[in-house]
Amino acid sequence: MSLDYVKFSNGFEKFMPKEYRDMVEHGPFGKKVSVSQMGSFKEVLEEHPMCAGCAMTLFIRLAMIAFPNPEDTITVGTAGCGRLAISQAAIPFVYGNYGDQNGVASGLSRGLRLRFGDKPKDVVVMAGDGGTADIGFQQVLHSWFRKERFTTIMLDNEVYGNTGGQESGMTNRGAVLKMAPLGKKFEKMDMVQMAKVAGCAYVATVVPNNPRRVESVIKKAVLIAREVGSTYIQAYTSCNIEYAIPTDKVMEDAKTVENDRYAFSEYVSDEAKQYLTERYGYKEFLSKPATPAAIPSKA
Amino acid sequence: MYLVADINVEICASKSCKLCTQYCPEANTILYSEEMGKDQGFKYGSAYVAVDRCKGCAQCVWVCDNMAKNNAIKMIMIDQLPKAALTDNVTYGEKSTTAVLASPVVG
Q1: Cβ contacts (< 8 Å) between B92 and chain A: which residues?
Q2: Range of the structural domain that residue B9 is part of
Q3: Which listed site, A149, A189, A250, B38, has its alpha carbon 20 to 30 Å from B96?
Q4: Å between A85 CA and nearest CA of chain B
Q5: In chain A, which residues have their Cβ closer than 8 Å to the Cβ of B63?
Q6: B26: nearest CB among A57, A250, A252
Q7: What contacts A196, CB < 8 A, 6 or more positions away?
C-alpha cells in the first residue's frame, strides 16, 4: 500500500521476470499516466484468461490507467468474468464471497482510514451486473445508504456470462439467452436512479468506446469517494460470447447500445462539485460568467 | 496456426493516431515506438504488436478502418509474418518503447 511494495527486495532484482522488472521500472506507480500515453509505458494489468475481444477487458484496462494513485488502491471484486482480469494486475485485489463485495469494501475502507488517517487509500469495487444488482444488491444499496466512501463500478454485460447465459436484473426485457430461452419478462433495473435516491455523490453511465471519457469518469469517482461519499459508475461492457457479437464488431455494438440505452450521463452532487473544484482544481463545475445578453439592462 | 494483428509501419508512421492501442482489450500488446518509422524517414513513430500477447480479436482492425480511416492493420497468420515483436524483445524507455523485430515462429 505504498510505493515500497512495488520495489525489488535487495538482491532479488536479477531473479525477477522481465514483466515484473518492466512494471517496477516503467509502470505507472508514483507517476501521472493517461490514456494518451498508452502503448509507451508498462501497464499494471498482465496477461489473463478473458475472452478475445472482450469489452469488459478493455474497460478494466482503462480503469487501471485511470486510478489516480494505483500504488494506494485496493480493488474488491466478486464472482464473475471481471475478476479473471482484475486479479491479474499489480494492484492488491480482494475477492469477496458472491455478492458481499460492498460489505467487504465498507470494512476495508473504514479500516484503512483508521490505519492511515488522512493519507488517501482508495478502495474500488468492480463487480458484474449479477454481483451488483442481483446477488449483491442488498449490500450495495446499504453501503450507499451508509454513504461509505468508496467507488462501486458495475461491469454491466447484461447477462451471467460466466455460467452459460442466464438473465440478470440488468438484462433487457425480451432478451433471449441460452439459459433464458423464453426471453426476459421484466424491465432492466434502473440502478442509476437507485444510486441517486440512495445518496451517491457521483453517478455516471459510460461505454468504453470513448477511452478518454472512461478515464475522466473513473478519476472523478475515485477522488470524490475519498472524502465526500459513495460513487457509482455503470459501464456497458458487452459479452461478445453470450450475445454473439463478432469480436471485430464489439466497438460497433458499443456505439449502437450507447445510442439506444446507454447514453453518457453524469450526476455530481453540489458538495462533490465544490470538492473537485477546490481540492483538485477542476474547472468544469465553476459557474460560467454571465454573458452580456443575460444581464438585464437597467431601464 | 492462428491470426494476429500486423500494423503497416508506412501508413501508421505517417498518421500516428494511436487509437489502436487505446482500444485494444489486451494490456501491453499494441505498443508505440518513437523510432520505428522515423528511422525510415517518416514523420512520426509507429505502433506495433507484441504478437505473443495478441488474441486475434481484430478490434484494432475495425478501429483503424472505421474510426481512424487509415486501413493500416491486417490480420495475418502468425507463421506468415516476416518479422514481429515478442514481449521479451521489447524495451521500455521514458516516453516510448523500442522493439527488436524477429521471426516470431521458429521450427
Answers
A1: 22, 25-26, 40-42
A2: 3-99
A3: A250
A4: 10
A5: 251
A6: A57
A7: A203, A267
Structure confidence at residue A286 (pLDDT): 87
Residue B104 in domain: no
C-alpha span between A243 and B55 (Å, rounded): 19
CB contact under 8 A, A250 and B87: no
Quote ipTM for the complex. 0.95
Chain A interface includes B4 (CB < 8 A):
no
Residue B107 resides in a domain? no
Homologous superfamily in CATH for domain A49-288: Thiamin diphosphate (ThDP)-binding fold, Pyr/PP domains (3.40.50.970)
Tell me: pLDDT of A35 over 80.
yes
Question: Which site among B55, B90, B91 would you substitute to test the A interface, given the most A Cβ atoms closer than 10 Å to its Cβ?
Answer: B55
Domain at B50, CATH number = 3.30.70
B81 part of a folded domain: yes
Residue numbers of A between 47 and 76 with CB closer than 8 Å to B: 47, 50, 52-55, 57-58, 61, 64
Q: What are phi and psi of A161, to 5 degrees?
A: -75, -25
Condensed to tens digits (0 to 9), the pLDDT of residues A131-164 reads: 999 999 999 999 999 999 999 999 999 999 989 9
Q: Please name the member of A45, A53, A61 whose beta carbon is closest to the beta carbon of B57.
A: A53
- Model confidence over A84-96: pLDDT tens digits? 999 999 999 999 8
How long is chain B? 107
Listed as own residue / partner, the contacts of A113-121 with beta carbons closer than 8 Å and 24 or more positions apart are A113/A149, A116/A1, A119/A72, A120/A69, A120/A72, A120/A226, A121/A1, A121/A72, A121/A73, A121/A74
Chain B residues lying within 8 Å of A52, measured CB to CB: 25, 55-57
